[in-house]
Amino acid sequence: MTTTANNDCVPALTCIKASGIDTRHALFAGVALLTLLAGGTSAMAAPATPVPADQGDARGDTTPEITVTAKQRLTFQSAQKVPDSITRISGQELVERGVKAVTDLPQLAPSLVIKSTNGGGAVDYYLRGVGMKDFTQNNTPSILAYVDGVAYPSAFSLTGSFFDLSSVDVTAGPVGFTHGLPDTGGEVNLHTADPTDHLSIGVNEDYASYGRNKASAYISGPITDTLAFRLAGQSIQGGAWQYRPTDGTKLGASDLTALRGKLRWQPDTATTLLVGGYLTIDHSQLTMEQPKANLIPSLAVSTTQTQRQAQWSCNPAFAQLAQIGGCRVPSMDNTIGGLNAKLTHQFDGFKVESLTAWDRTKVREFSDQDGSQYDSDDSFRYLDIKSISQQLIVSSDADKRLTWSLGGYWNKTALDVRFFYDFAANPSNYMAQTTYGQRSTSFSQFANLAFKLTPRLTLRAAGSHQYDGRQLNGLHTTQYVGNNPSLIKADYPFGNVATQSSTWNWSGGIDWQARDNLLIYGKISRSNRPGGFTANNTTTIFQLAPYLPEQLTTYEAGFKSDIIPGRLRLNLAAFHNDYINQVYLGSYVTTNRSTGLYVNIPKSDSNGVEGTLEVQPVKDLWIKQNFGYQKGTFQQFFAINTAAVTAFFAKNGYYTAIGSDFSGYDNGSPHLTLNGSADYTLHAVKNYDLNLGGDWSYMDSQLITPGGTGFFKLPSYTILGAHLTIRPKQGRWSATVYSTNITNKVYYPSGNNASPATNWLPGEPRFVGVRFAYAY
């Protein structure tokens, strides 16, 4: 697919066409060519590089993207001595499970839910039932995403990051005591592979159903005795599995190219400087939500579409208003890039780390939020997000009886937004434009101590403070007569509004290394998340009132045990969450429209348990099972009843605000999540190993609205996958045949209510593919 030129693209990368070949694809091809040339013919005779058994603890010398040796089991061994419940996923597991985006992670981590927001490219994270829906992307999420320690300001910023990774950490509960910014729900942290001390190259080609092609490559090695580099890239193309039944037009094709580079300079044994940069260009199409209810009688919306069917519309008058250069299928035109530098110096007795980053995300996204052929809820959004951050940490040596660290993280973000909505086919008959700028500054300081009372008993304490200030500038909503972008129907200019907060956070705990293979721990942690604004189709000053910061206190106890070292591992954690002022996307209702409005839930709580079991019951058979259970309840919550408002509209043809007391209602997150895998290695063929594996994932039912039933409740589902891999006992390649969703299960990982429409987003159908990997 070639790129359509526009005034907002990066000219050298997205606006040039040469013989029909997109320049960004040529850049990726260059990386692959360099990789192959660097390997040369001598690469075929050298021994394979094994993956370290402790992936993620020594990230500088891993080649996780295309491992061709036998899988190393019970990884992250040193983490068994760390008192936490972090889910650590190796780079090799990410490749074997076919992870191509952050939305695939719930199949590998317990208690993790990731939902698409109104069918767009942005996603929302939920851990242990903690999270928030943020369509506008102008708020600090409850679960922050990081790449190499840099906090990403928007969910869009993580697009294209899932390649050449050494590991991914999923942390649940209050965070911000050792790095980054405080948060209530946790964080997802990606660790990219570092430059290596020896020449290391790899190529991975993955071709699957519906013409989906994922290719990745890297090259890494020394330049001089003190300087090393790593260059990696990936391209994901095709895979359009949805189609419009009226004309057969396909939808959902990927068109993404990403590059990442790193330089490592070590002038002496005490100093390391890592300088990196990345660029992602994404012109992928969206996959469409499917309507389960649309209560406007004049709109004959089908609610019985098959899994692969999708409807959408594009109004030429709306395209003119949004200046999107003509009608197109729901799709993105995003450019994401950044630079970062990490300097580490080891002094006598302590270490200093400095991390500096600059990131920019430009989003141009057209989506059809009601999934119908009518112009009843289409949107176009333009986001320009610029962020600069600085972190400084000073920490003691780890082999002392008293260990400590002190640090701070500063972040400044500038957000410029244009939102467009098309409601021309609704009885209200208008199109809308909302524009604003938001400026925010956040500064966090943190400290933590660990003191060994005995060689096996440790006390821990941590604290942090965060200042957050943000200002919403010049918010302006204009409504135009439907299908006439030159005729203003209503105008709502607003001034500037601001909010700021200063919050304190703390954590304390004790851990006991009862045996060399058994760690028992308990801790209490409290953290806050800053307040913010509703900024979406705003027409009254009431909608601009900032919501309050939320606070979460978590009580957690657990153990980590290698019951039979190298053969049987069980890690388990139980928790209780106390939530104050939880942020929730409720509704603001007028006679013409029900729109989103962030509100605070005064009090809520949840309880749960989660863990991981890894076992080798017989030789060459390995089984891994993650499990998570949570049940949360709103303790004090009075809000607009979406189901009642929707029912009133269906009967009367207009809206009215209907409130309900939801105290005692379920928080709506899945109670039970299960995922795991099993692998068996056959040695039946001389000089070759055959690996046969399967994987599974179960997600319990989810509620779209409090107390939801019927189309306000997503059903539970189970999806299965399988693979067969052949690799030489002594060699550099592997070949895999695999299938995801092998039973072709129809399932819905997320859903949204944009009254009067309630939509569900279908998951991917069965994909069958082949993957070839070569590494040197």
Fill in the keyword field for this structure:
5-stranded mixed β-sheet; 776 residues; 43 strands; globular; mainly beta; 5 helices; Maltoporin, Chain A; 22-stranded antiparallel β-barrel
Care to describe what's here?
Strand 30 and strand 31 form a beta hairpin. The chain is 6% helix and 54% strand. The chain is mainly β and 776 residues long. The longest helix has 17 residues. The protein has a single domain, classed as Maltoporin, Chain A, CATH 2.40.170. The strands form eight sheets. The chain has a 22-stranded antiparallel β-barrel. A five-stranded mixed sheet has the order 3-9-10-7-8. Strands 4-5-6 form a three-stranded antiparallel sheet, with no helix packed on it.
- Which CATH class? Mainly Beta
- Please tally the helical runs, counting DSSP H or I stretches of 4 or more residues: 5
Percent of residues in helices comes to: under 10%
Based on Cα principal axes, name the global outline: globular
Q: Specify Rg, calculated over alpha carbons.
A: 26 Å
Q: Largest beta sheet, briefly?
A: 22 strands, antiparallel, barrel
| The CATH fourth-level homologous superfamily | TonB-dependent receptor, beta-barrel domain
Question: What percent strand?
Answer: over 45%
Q: What do the pLDDT scores average to?
A: 88
**CATH architecture annotation name:** Beta Barrel
Question: What structural class do helix, strand and pairing data support?
Answer: mainly beta
Low-confidence stretches: 1-71
Taking the alpha carbons of the first and last residues, their distance comes to: 32 Å
The total of beta strands comes to: 43
